[in-house]
Amino acid sequence: MGSLEFAALTKELNACREQLLEKEEEISELKAERNNTRLLLEHLECLVSRHERSLRMTVVKRQAQSPSGVSSEVEVLKALKSLFEHHKALDEKVRERLRVSLERVSALEEELAAANQEIVALREQNVHIQRKMASSEGSTESEHLEGMEPGQKVHEKRLSNGSIDSTDETSQIVELQELLEKQNYEMAQMKERLAALSSRVGEVEQEAETARKDLIKTEEMNTKYQRDIRETVNQYALY
């Protein structure tokens, strides 16, 4: 695996990190919107509690005047309460989705950091191995240029130093090649892990998008809810 492929992997990893940062910003915005929605729900709940008694009294009076059936005010009150409970449940659902998304982002960040460290370590090992191989090959080439048999000079030098014969150098080159192949295999595995992490980033994006849509629906329904309360209160004020 050459330096170009290392650079491509590093670039891919950086792209994943940028996507995660974007998702973190997006989730932070969603959390802020969720807090605003929660405050709105609390305000609406106070409105319902404040006017519930007067609404009930008005309903009783109108029912006494018109005993033919259940008045529309009762249905409106029930609808408002039901809508409020639905909003609270939907807000909890959005909150849970955001919590899960944040946990997944945190886990992905840890995995990306670990993968980045492994890639850096493998790259350094590969560079070291390639340098050792280049040094060994250069020594062999110099022997050829001087018209000697490969390993002859090393053989004489190592014998005078009392060490093993020159065939050990060839064995060392073979070992380095095997180690380099192993490193390349591990790099290929790291590439697969990065692809899997990229896929998980896509899942987080989809979850964040779903949470955003749910939050938009909640805000739209809350707006309608507030408008209905205003209209109902204004209607009862006429009686």
Q: Can you put this structure into words, describing what you see?
A:
There is one protein chain. The protein is mostly helical and 239 residues long. The chain has a single domain, classed as Ferritin, CATH 1.20.1260. The chain has helices spanning 3-65, 72-145, 152-160, 167-237. Helix 1 (3-65) packs antiparallel against helix 2 and helix 1 packs parallel to helix 4. The longest helix has 74 residues, at 72-145. It is rod-shaped and about 110 Å long. The chain starts with a helix and ends with a helix. The model is unreliable at 143-161 (pLDDT under 50).
Distance between the termini: 83 Å
- Count every beta strand, where a strand is a DSSP E run of 2 or more residues: 0
The biggest sheet amounts to: none
Elements, N to C (H/E) = HHHH
**Helix content range:** over 70%
Domain module tally: 1
Morphology call:
rod-shaped
CATH topology: Ferritin
Q: Bin the strand percentage.
A: under 5%
What is the CA-based Rg, rounded? Answer: 36 Å
Q: Give the class from helix and strand content and strand pairing.
A: mainly alpha
Helix count, per DSSP?
4
Low-pLDDT stretches: 143-161
**Average pLDDT, all residues:** 67
CATH architecture: Up-down Bundle
* The CATH top-level class label: Mainly Alpha
Biased composition (Polar residues): 160-170
GO biological process, one term: synapse organization
InterPro entries: LIP-1_CC2, Liprin
Region (Disordered): 134-170
